[in-house]
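Weekly puzzle thread! Below is a chain. First person to post its structure in token form gets bragging rights.
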Amino acid sequence: MSDKKKPVQVYLREDQVEALRMVAERRGESMAELVRAGVDLLLEGLPPEEDPLLDIVGLYDSGQSDLAEKHDEYLAQTVKEEGEREP
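Winning reply:
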């Protein structure tokens, strides 16, 4: 996961802002860090059918019918071939 951050504007209720500010102060963390942690918790709890990363499943056909069973072998072979190509 990237450490690069992108600004996002979010509107919170006044009571949420005040509670968040108090928690951040007690923990010695920024409000932004607490919001990021909250988003992480939400995303971790997503049911599989709502996981946006599952949209990539099936986008690519390797042509290998046994890829699930032999993925380690195929990966090692690719790494070896890539290493042989480098000067």
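Puzzle host: Confirmed. Bonus trivia for everyone else. Residues 10-46 form one domain.
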